[in-house]
């Protein structure tokens, strides 16, 4: 081995603490990069495979009723490849605990083999569906611990039927199982899907010989819009309620959003880590070069070229990069398998092929090399300036200058001597100080993100169900009713407030932008809903016109005062053009709201309602359990409970982030301290000789670091705010809009976390001061 | 007639220190012969280190030129100067300047592995009297031993010229004499041209020639008809 390389290895051994701390940063960056990217690719390809294998529909159409015979006609439509009809309806399921309300969606599958949305049968592969059995969706079966041979008791139109479970199946249509767009997260023990025979479904639902849903596969996905137009025209007479393209399909949509989020993180976090790593490396290296001034002079005198000396130091960084990327990439690849499996289990994707994606290894290596070599060259560039002859002489002391603060004499006089030293030291190398502050500020900002998320999720729930929606229960009817039923209900239930609701999904259009969403009609004097516009001003529903949520206004690109079209599927009713009276806040789901009377007149029928919301302390669920025509009783308290359970999983992510931020903060402070000590060896030694003890010196270094931390936290606040705003924009979806409520506690807690790691780093660095041999330092002349 | 190894022709060096220009060296003009032992004598600040650095290709003169075997080195670019230092010159410094994290032997190898025609390291180490301390680190050695390593490092690459900057400056008298003896022996056994700069007048007695400097100027070049062996020097 070359002697310079031996020297390098011993140099690394000598400064292993610093070396390891930077290696860890690089390793973590690449681990995240590999892990997140590979997992995302694995999941995406597994999902694509799953879709292909089960032939997931391109378009899902909900309509009032279409006779079986009409389907062959649809096949003649240009661009339509396959069509499959089915009956689908949600009914309550009777379970042991009478207080528990469980809904199940019964979906018919064709008597012969299904061509679209083929079930992935996990058990009971050979079983045939008749009028008394069903296949049960995996997630629901697991959550409720139901297995083959068990009985299901759905209550359909007031009558309890008995179905035996013949097998468990997974469905690519329900990878992410949510009841509807208003659901915040899957609650698999409360909502399930059972697949039944067409014969059974049609006979119990009154859809004899016809369907209420169609699944369509198109010839060419790029011509989707044309096919949809043609289908719409053809199906108009059957009362199309919704046409859902695959991209808007609930499960698919959530899945893609989650993957997008993972991929965003896979880029943002590693780049931040590597940037901080690069800052530390370049400072560390320029310090080493400074320290090695004389050695460099000797090397030059011995005839070593600038290039070979530069590469000697750049190799140090390369070693960091190589070891870090080896650990990071290997770790990422090793963990990507289990991590992908974990995701697959979470999302119920039955097939997963774990791939090694060499492309990511290469891009990870390129990413690391660019960061390392750049920081290495920046750090080692002063090698060029060292003249062999000069370097033999001790370096002239840095020119001490008065700092700005000293000019303000009366202030400066009040500063204690030890603080004067601290302040001067900071000012001595302003650029480095600025870099360190920036790095630490990034570490701090990383800490604010998870804290914001935790805060935001709680806020979302409390605002949505405390302030904006004040009901305790919402009741959905299984079919539209006359508003007179409210009177019947109020006899049954003791409720302080009971209001009618009319809710239908409509397609809203603004130019080419369109979105199907639930439009909700409410009494204008509603006491259960509170609307607040973007300026947080309370607004009431207008007589004409309607409100849309912020998420919807973003999707449709409309603002207050714009006019949009509501496409009406109700036969005999025309499409209407309506003014957006205001854009309102809503954090969960995206809806439009209008006056119930106007809605009845324009879009539905007089007196028609589809549900009721109420404020009540009564035993609502118990009392309504045997009532006809009620498809769902939703309790806000139940939602809150399952939401809280969901939040628990969030805390894992928060800890994860805090540790990330912590690693960065630790590495920065540890390295800065070690470098500072090495640099001022002589100075500290002189102080020791003058009678300062170890503690005094440690305290001085401490003070400098805390001044740095304090400034970094100040600088980090706007950075954190920027990152939080980025999160709000990037991760707000139709389902969840993050509120822009940024509590001061976020910043305080993030600061506490940062300070915690700073203290740990200080303690780790303290040993260096305590073991410093000041006599040696004073006469140190060998490099 | 002795062969000329180096011609120093009218070499001057001035530094710009802020607004004043300092003339560190003015019109130095002399020749070095192959195999001779030259002592450059002068008080600190007399310009002797500047002269040595320029002769060793570590610094460039502001005026004048230096020819090594009829080749002008003062016109060299950085790459050629590096090659000159690598192949032709061996340096010995006052403070030894060894690499702290390399052993004695490795320090020597550091120099030899980049040049052609290096001598056998073990022979050289034995010659400087460190045959049995080759695997020690500088911190485990005395000053005299460290300086021996430095000399071995300079000699092992088999240079044309050995330039020593106050080689005894940091050593006690006894050790200093031993180092001078070693340099003397190298001069005689390997027939190397050795240039020592020092402020110690006594050392001048052992040189074949003594170049005296003061305030950046050469004030006298004296030929010693009978140089005395180093062991008889005293100060």
Give the arrangement of secondary structure elements.
The complex is a heterodimer of chains A (783) and B (235).
Chain A: H1 3-14, H2 16-54, E1 59-67, H3 71-74, E2 80-86, E3 88-93, E4 102-109, E5 120-121, E6 133-137, H4 138-144, E7 151-152, E8 155-156, E9 159-160, E10 163-170, E11 191-197, H5 198-205, E12 210-218, H6 224-235, E13 240-245, H7 250-291, H8 293-302, H9 306-347, H10 358-380, H11 388-391, H12 404-407, H13 409-414, H14 417-428, H15 430-468, E14 473-482, H16 485-492, E15 497-510, E16 513-522, E17 531-532, E18 538-539, E19 546-549, H17 550-556, E20 563-567, E21 576-584, E22 591-595, H18 596-603, E23 608-615, H19 620-624, E24 630-635, H20 636-679, H21 681-689, H22 694-731, H23 744-770, H24 774-779
Parallel strand pairs in A: 4-11, 6-10, 16-22, 19-21
Antiparallel strand pairs in A: 1-12, 1-13, 2-12, 3-4, 5-10, 6-11, 7-10, 8-9, 14-23, 14-24, 15-16, 15-20, 15-23, 17-18, 19-22, 20-21
Helix pairs in contact in A: 1-9, 2-7, 2-9, 2-10, 2-20, 7-9, 7-10, 7-15, 7-20, 9-10, 14-22, 15-20, 15-22, 15-23, 20-23, 22-23
Chain B: E1 4-17, E2 20-33, E3 37-41, H1 48-55, E4 63-68, E5 71-72, H2 78-88, E6 89-92, H3 104-112, H4 121-127, H5 143-156, E7 161-165, H6 173-189, E8 193-198, E9 209-214, E10 217-223
Parallel strand pairs in B: 3-8, 3-9, 6-7, 7-8
Antiparallel strand pairs in B: 1-2, 1-4, 4-5, 9-10
First CA to last CA of chain B: what distance? Answer: 34 Å
Global geometry of chain B:
globular
The description of the largest β-sheet of chain B is:
6 strands, mixed
Q: Which CATH architecture of chain B?
A: 3-Layer(aba) Sandwich
**What is the total tally of β strands of chain B?**
10
Number of β-strand runs of chain A: 24
**Mean pLDDT, all residues of chain A:** 85
Number of helices of chain B: 6
Strand content of chain B: 25-35%
Rounded radius of gyration of chain B (Å): 17 Å
């Amino acid at each position: 081995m070359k002697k310079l390389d031996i020297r390098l290895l011993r140099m690394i051994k000598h400064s292993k603490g610093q070396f390891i701390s930077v290696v860890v940063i690089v390793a973590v960056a690449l681990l995240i990069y590999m892990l997140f990217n590979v997992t995302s690719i694995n999941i995406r390809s597994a999902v694509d495979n799953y879709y292909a294998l089960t032939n997931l529909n391109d378009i899902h159409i909900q309509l009032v009723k279409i006779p079986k015979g009409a389907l062959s006609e649809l096949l003649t439509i240009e661009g339509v490849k396959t069509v499959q009809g089915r009956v689908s309806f949600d009914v309550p399921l009777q379970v042991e605990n009478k207080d528990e309300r469980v809904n199940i969606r019964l979906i018919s599958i064709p008597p012969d083999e299904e061509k679209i949305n083929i079930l992935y049968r996990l058990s009971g592969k050979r079983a045939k569906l008749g009028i008394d059995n069903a296949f049960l969706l995996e997630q629901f079966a697991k959550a409720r611990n139901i297995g083959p041979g068990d009985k299901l008791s759905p209550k359909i139109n007031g009558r309890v039927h008995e179905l035996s479970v013949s097998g468990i199946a997974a469905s690519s249509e329900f990878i992410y199982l949510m009841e509807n767009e208003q659901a915040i997260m899957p609650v698999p023990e409360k909502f399930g899907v059972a697949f039944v025979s067409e014969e059974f479904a049609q006979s119990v639902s009154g859809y004899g010989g016809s369907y209420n849903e169609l699944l369509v596969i198109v010839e060419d996905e790029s011509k989707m819009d044309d096919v949809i137009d043609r289908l719409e025209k053809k199906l108009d007479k059957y009362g199309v309620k919704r046409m859902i393209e695959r991209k808007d399909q609930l499960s698919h949509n959530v899945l893609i959003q989650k993957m997008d989020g993972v991929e965003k993180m896979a880029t943002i976090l590693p780049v931040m880590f590597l940037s901080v790593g690069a800052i530390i490396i370049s400072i560390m290296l320029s310090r080493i070069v400074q320290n090695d001034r004389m050695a460099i002079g000797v090397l030059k005198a011995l005839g070593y070229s600038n290039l070979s000396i530069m590469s000697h130091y750049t190799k140090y960084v390369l070693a960091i990069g190589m070891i870090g990327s080896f650990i990071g990439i290997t770790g990422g690849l090793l963990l990507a398998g289990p991590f992908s499996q974990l995701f697959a289990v979470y999302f119920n994707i039955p097939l997963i092929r774990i791939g090694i994606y060499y492309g990511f290894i290469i891009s990870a290596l390129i990413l690391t090399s660019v960061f390392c070599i750049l920081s290495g060259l920046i750090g080692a560039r002063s090698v060029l300036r060292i003249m062999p002859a000069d370097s033999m002489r001790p370096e002239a002391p840095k020119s001490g200058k008065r700092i700005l603060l000293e000019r303000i004499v009366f202030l400066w006089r009040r500063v204690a001597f030890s603080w004067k030293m601290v302040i001067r030291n900071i000012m001595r190398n302003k650029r480095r100080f600025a870099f360190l502050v920036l790095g630490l500020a990034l570490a701090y900002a990383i800490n604010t993100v998870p804290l914001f998320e935790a805060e935001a999720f709680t806020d979302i729930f409390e605002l949505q169900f405390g302030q904006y929606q004040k009901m305790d229960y919402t009741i959905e009817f299984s079919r539209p009713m006359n508003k007179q039923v409210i009177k019947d209900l109020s006899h049954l239930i003791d409720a302080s407030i009971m209001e009618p609701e009319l809710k239908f999904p409509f397609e809203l259009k603004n130019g080419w932008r369109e979105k199907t969403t639930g439009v909700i009609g409410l009494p204008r004097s509603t006491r259960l809903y509170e609307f607040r516009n973007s300026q947080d001003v309370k607004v009431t529903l207008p007589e004409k016109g309607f409100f849309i949520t912020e998420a919807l206004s973003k999707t449709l690109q409309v603002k207050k005062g714009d006019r949009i079209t509501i496409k009406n599927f109700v036969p005999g009713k025309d499409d209407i053009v309506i003014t957006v009276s205001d854009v309102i806040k809503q954090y969960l789901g995206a809806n439009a709201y209008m006056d119930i009377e106007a809605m009845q007149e324009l879009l539905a029928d007089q007196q028609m309602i589809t549900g009721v919301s109420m404020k009540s302390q009564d035993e609502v669920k118990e009392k309504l359990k045997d009532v006809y025509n009620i498809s769902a009783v939703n309790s806000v308290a139940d939602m809150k409970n399952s939401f809280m359970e969901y939040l628990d999983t969030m805390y894992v992510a928060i800890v994860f982030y805090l540790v990330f931020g912590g690693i960065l903060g630790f590495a920065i402070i540890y390295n800065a301290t070690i470098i500072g000590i090495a640099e001022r060896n002589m100075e500290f030694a002189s102080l020791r000789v003058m009678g300062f003890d170890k503690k005094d010196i440690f305290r001085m270094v401490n003070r400098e670091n805390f001044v740095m931390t304090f400034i970094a936290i100040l600088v980090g606040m706007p950075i954190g705010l920027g990152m939080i705003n980025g999160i709000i924009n990037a991760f707000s979806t139709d389902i969840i809009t993050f509120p822009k409520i940024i509590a001061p506690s976020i910043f305080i807690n993030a600061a506490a976390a940062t300070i915690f790691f700073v203290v740990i780093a200080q303690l780790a660095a303290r040993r260096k001061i305590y073991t410093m041999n000041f006599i040696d330092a004073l006469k140190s002349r060998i490099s | 007639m002795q062969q000329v190894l180096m011609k120093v022709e009218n070499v001057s060096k001035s530094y710009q220190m802020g607004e004043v220009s300092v003339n560190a060296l003015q019109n130095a003009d002399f020749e070095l012969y192959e195999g001779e032992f030259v002592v450059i004598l002068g008080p600190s600040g007399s310009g002797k280190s500047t002269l040595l650095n320029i002769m060793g290709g570590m610094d460039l003169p502001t005026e004048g030129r230096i020819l090594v075997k009829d080749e002008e080195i003062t016109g060299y670019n950085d790459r050629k100067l590096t090659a000159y230092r690598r192949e032709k010159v061996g340096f010995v410094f006052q403070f030894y300047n060894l690499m702290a994290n390399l052993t004695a032997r490795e320090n020597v190898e550091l120099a030899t592995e980049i040049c052609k025609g290096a001598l056998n390291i073990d022979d050289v180490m034995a010659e400087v009297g460190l045959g049995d301390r080759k695997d020690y680190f500088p911190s485990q050695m005395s000053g005299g031993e460290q300086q021996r390593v430095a000399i071995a490092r300079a000699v092992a690459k088999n240079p044309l010229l050995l330039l020593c900057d106050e080689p005894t400056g940091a050593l006690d008298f006894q050790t200093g004499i031993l180092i001078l003896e070693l340099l003397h022996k190298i001069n005689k056994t390997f027939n190397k041209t050795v240039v020592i700069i020092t402020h110690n007048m006594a050392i001048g007695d052992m040189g074949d020639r003594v170049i005296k400097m003061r305030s950046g100027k050469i004030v006298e070049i004296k030929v010693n008809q009978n140089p005395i062996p180093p062991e008889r020097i005293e100060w």
